[in-house]
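MODEL INPUT / OUTPUT PAIR
PAIR INDEX: 1
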Amino acid sequence: MQAGNWSKVVGVCLVAACPTVATGWQTDDLNRFLVSMNCEDCDLRIVNFVQADLRAAGLRGSDLTGARLYYSVLIGADLVGVTLTGADLRGANLFHADLTGARLVDANLAGANLVGATLSGADLTGTNLSGANLFGADLSDAILSGANLGSALMYRTNLRGATLQGARMEGLTMCNTVMQDGTINDSGCAAK
C-alpha cells in the first residue's frame, strides 16, 4: 500500500495508530473505494472504518464481513446486497441508507440510526438492534429471526411479510407500525 493511501486509512479509522486496519480486504478494492467512495462488489472484509464519514458511499454487492463501522456516518449509502455478517455498526448513522437484500447475520446495530432506511428482504438473523431507531424504516420481507429488538423504536416502520420468529422484543416501542400481516400496531403511541 502506498504511503499516501495509508494516511487516508488512518484518517478514516480515526485511530492514532492503525497498523492492522484490516486483514481480509483486497488492497486494490480499498484504494478504489478511498479514491471514489464507490466500490461495487468489493472485498472489504474486516475493514476498519470506525467513526468514518461514508455519506452516500456506494458499496453495492460488497463483502464487509466482520467490518468495524461503529459510530460511522453512512447517510444515504448504497448498501444494496452487501454482506455485513458479524459487522459492528453500533451507533452508526444509516439515515435513509439502502440495505435492500443485505446480509447482516449476527451484526451489531445497537443504538444505530436507521430512520428511513430500506432493509427490504434483508437477512438480520441474530442481529442486535437493541435501542436502534427504526422510524420509517422498511423491513418488509426481512428476516429478523432471533434478532434483539429490545428498546428499539418502530414508528411508521413497515414489517409486512417480515419473519420475527424468536425475536426478542422487550421494551420495543411500536406506533403506526405495519405488522407482518398488514395490520397496524399502535400499542406504543402516546395517549391522544
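PAIR INDEX: 2
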Amino acid sequence: MSPYLPRTRPVAGRAPLLLAGVCGVLAWVSPARAQDARVENRFSPKGGVADAIVRQLDKATRTLDIGMYSISVGDQAPIFQALKRAVARGVKVRMVLDHANTGARNKQKALALERAGIDVRYVSRTMHEKFGIVDGSVLLNGSANWTESADQQHSENVQVLPGPAGLIAAFQAEFQTLLDRSKDFDPSEYHP
C-alpha cells in the first residue's frame, strides 16, 4: 500500500469511487510536492471557498477555462466580478455552462457573462462539473458551484492545485471535450 494513501474501511454506494478519485489525487500530489506547490483546500459554508477562487482568478494573465454547472452573476457576486476584472486585463475567458440556453434564469446568467466579455458555451445534457484552469497551470476543482449559496450556505469544497502537469493536462483535455460537444450561446436569441 502506498504510504500516501490513508487506510480505509469498506463503504457502500458511490463513496468507494469518490474515495478512489480523492486518493488518486493525493497519491499524485505527495505530501512534499503538496507543500511545495501550495495546495489550498477550502470548505464552506463561510470557509473561504469564494475567496480562494477569486485570489486565483485575479492572478490570471492569459487564460481561464471553466466548466461549471452554475455561477452567480451580479454586482454582489465576487467570482463574477473577478471574471470581469480578468477580461478587463485581457485574459481570454471561456466557460462551458450546463443548459445555458434553457430557462429564463440560466439565459440571464449566460447573457450577463457574455456581456462581461466571456465566451459562453453550453451543453444540452446535464453537465455537473465544477472546475477552472488558470493560465494552464493551476486547477480549481471541487464540489462547489461558483455561486453565493455554495460559498455561504451549502457544505462544499474547492481545492487550488498548482500543477502537476499531468493533472492539469487531464482537465484541459476534459475542457476541450466539453468545448467540442458544446454550442455557442447566442445573446441575440435571448428575449426576456
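PAIR 2 NOTE: The CA atoms of residues 28 and 164 lie 8 Å apart.
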